[in-house]
Amino acid sequence: MNSLTLPPLRTAAGSVRLPGSKSISNRMLLLAALAEGTTEIRDLLDSDDTRVMLAALRKVGVGVSALGGSVWRIEGCGGIFSVKDADLFMGNAGTAIRPLTAALALSGGHYRLSGVPRMHERPIGDLVDGLLQIGADVRYTGNPGFPPLAIHPASVKLAAPIRLRGDVSSQFLTALLMALPLTGEEAVIEMTTELISKPYVEITLNLMEHFGVEVRRDGWQRFTIAAGQRYSSPGVLHVEGDASAASYFLAAGAIGGGPVRVEGVGHSSIQGDVRFADALQAMGARIEWGEQHIEARAPMSGKLKAFDLDLNHIPDAAMTLAVAALFADGRCVLRNVASWRVKETDRIAAMATELRKLGATVEEGTDFIAVSPAPTLVSAAAIDTYDDHRIAMCFSLAALGGVPVTINDPQCVNKTFPDYFDALAEITAPVIAIDGPSASGKGTVAERVAAALGYHYLDSGSLYRLTALAAVRTAVSLDDEPGVAALAASLPASFEGGRILLAEHDVTDDIRSEEISVGASKVAALPAVRAALLARQRAYRRFPGLVADGRDMGSVVFPSAAAKVFLTASAEVRAERRHKQLIAKGMPANMHALLQDLQERDARDAQRSVAPLRQCDDADLVDTTPMSIDAAVAAVMTIVKRQL
Ligand code: DC
User: Fold this and answer.
1) N or C: more exposed end of the chain, with fewer CB within 10 A?
2) Which among 551, 555, 615 is the best mutation to test ligand 1's pocket, defined by most ligand atoms within 8 Å of the CB?
């Protein structure tokens, strides 16, 4: 796919489970590889950058195996890589090439490290200078100061402190810190400049400690690793959610009303980028912190406020602030972000160029960027992404200005967040919720409204019907709440062009039988079944939008739906419609029995304790008793157009 056009978005609300942190994932992988013992890492990020690290570790002889479900087992090599000669491809993963260069330089082998063309423009000279000071043999095979690199065995001596610059990237310090315990000698690093992005070094120190190595830190000037420390596996470790990725959703909540909750980072996070929430708060957003979550909503009243902030501590999340600035009430200044120039692309230049496409006036300097928003965003801007995942992700938020935005080469998000646009859709894509009793015609109407708008369609009733069918077929009693909920949670169902499949079998007609209709109504009254189907229903919310029909689309599943319709008809008319349908399909039907069944099901759906059938306060009522299907579709389209 070469571009993705996001529809105009107006609101953001809901919750997002974050992927694992890239910074933590790649550090943990390397430390686990260098350690003695086996480490199990849970919730490891699955993305381009972590695959680069995993592939490199495998190539140098480290045992890595996927245990399924984001869990990996790493067999530590105790600091001695068994493969002594290898070519390693590092893609554009800074978190892989820097620490690996340092670790390999101290491990007595012949290694060649290269990456994509942009990687060969990203500096690594300060790290190499540090390694050369202790006698390592690291050579540039392309341009001096940049990858590709060739490493050869050398005898390393730690006589004097290593003098290191820290003003281009904190990853050079991180790389040396992680590698130096391999020498077994006392190691001292002295910074010769100001150290940028300090919170990332804190992540490094924190994780090294988990593996049993302590670093003495004197301010941010001098770091000492005592002699004789070795990494040993802590056994099982868990990767926090990615705090940089959290920034997009938190900003969406602040811009698009909210509340938006990110799950996987909170109070106790070791990632500096959680401080992005403070910057949003400075803009007037309402932020709430939990142990494992953060939630953001728009200011109580008025627009987001302009800001002038030093963002050196959160360089990645700061890009999200530059886009949030488009929604501020004045000129916003982002200071002390010179490191942007040497990231995946020259981010200062790229952000300035792309922000201007949206109508903002942008000033850029060597280490700052100032954004003055236009009163309204330019519609249909096409954003170039420079193979930089963060540009793609942060500019998607511009669509919350109610304008379509095209993101070119959207797949660059694979670097750290392959499912980013699906996650964004789950909190922003417009939803039309159509609820109502059985046989009110809502299925047909919803499907036609979806087709007219080019939206996706969810027939939520079919999920309850499929659950009932699965229970009947596997002889699980419909009263067995945990048993039925377990079936619902792992329903092997799929929808293919109007046909409904259960474990590859076409059950489109089977789920409409009277037996299954009654069974569906019974299982739908079980709270555990409803809970088991919730996430599955929400996952249908995709761009450009969703029409969902059921009983609780507007009340429970999509409470922030852009339009809510309650579609009903008298029980008699509904029984007549069902009768006609059954006769047309050549199935047996009895008007009197149908009416009685409908009334019983209505009563059960309306009286159950969870998500009872009722019209939401903010839903528009459409009574189709006197209407044809065409008239009902037209009535709903009128409501939808008004709300959208
Ligand atoms: O809409 P339908 O007749 O296909 O729904 C089948 C059953 O599932 C019905 O008895 C109500 C229940 N249901 C529900 O409780 N919540 C929904 N969102 C959809 C259907």
Assistant:
1) N
2) 551
CA dihedral 294, 300, 303, 306 (to 10 degrees): -60
Minimal-distance CA residue to ligand 1 atom 3: 438
10-residue averages of pLDDT along the chain (644 residues): 93 96 97 98 96 98 95 96 98 97 97 97 97 98 98 95 96 98 97 96 98 98 97 98 98 98 96 97 98 97 97 97 98 97 94 98 97 97 97 98 98 96 97 94 95 96 97 96 97 91 94 91 95 96 97 94 95 92 87 92 87 90 94 97 90
513 Cα to the center of ligand 1, angstroms: 14
| Cis-peptide into 123, omega within 30 deg | no
Specify whether the CB–CB gap between 640 and 449 falls below 8 A: yes
CA 435 to chain centroid = 29
Q: What is the pLDDT of residue 501?
A: 95
E strands in 315-380: 332-335, 361-364, 368-372
Task: Pick the atom of ligand 1 nearest to 601's CA.
Answer: 10
Residue located nearest, by CA, to atom 14 of ligand 1: 551
Q: What is the predicted pLDDT for the residue at 135?
A: 97
CA distances (Å), origin 192, targets 138, 314, 627: 21, 22, 79
Q: Could you confirm whether 316 is annotated as catalytic? A: yes
H or E stretch including 532? helix 527-538
The pLDDT value given to residue 13 = 95
For residue 442, give the ligand 1 atom closest to its CA: 1
Question: Which pLDDT value is given to residue 593?
Answer: 92
Please count the other Cβ atoms lying within 10 Å of the Cβ belonging to residue 289. Answer: 14
What pLDDT does residue 539 have?
94
Residue tagged active-site, from 273, 316, 435, 552 = 316
Extended beta strands in 518-569, E state: 546-550, 563-568
Distance from Cα 511 to the centre of ligand 1, integer Å: 12
pTM score, whole prediction: 0.92
The residues lining ligand 1, judged by C-beta closer than 6 Å to any ligand atom, are 438, 460-461, 464-465, 520-521, 524, 550-552, 601, 605
Domains recognised in the chain with CATH numbers:
3-18+241-423 (3.65.10.10), 22-238 (3.65.10.10), 429-643 (3.40.50.300)
Count of Cβ atoms closer than 10 Å to residue 407 Cβ:
26
**The pLDDT of residue 606:** 87
Q: Where are the beta strands (DSSP E) in 1-48?
A: 3-6, 12-17, 38-42
